[in-house]
Specification:
Blueprint lengths: L1 H14 L1
């Protein structure tokens, strides 16, 4: 789902 993808991307940025 687009929302999940967006959340995953944001999470990756925060984790980075």
């Amino acid at each position: 789902s687009p929302l999940e993808f967006k959340i995953g991307r944001s999470y990756k940025m925060v984790k980075a």
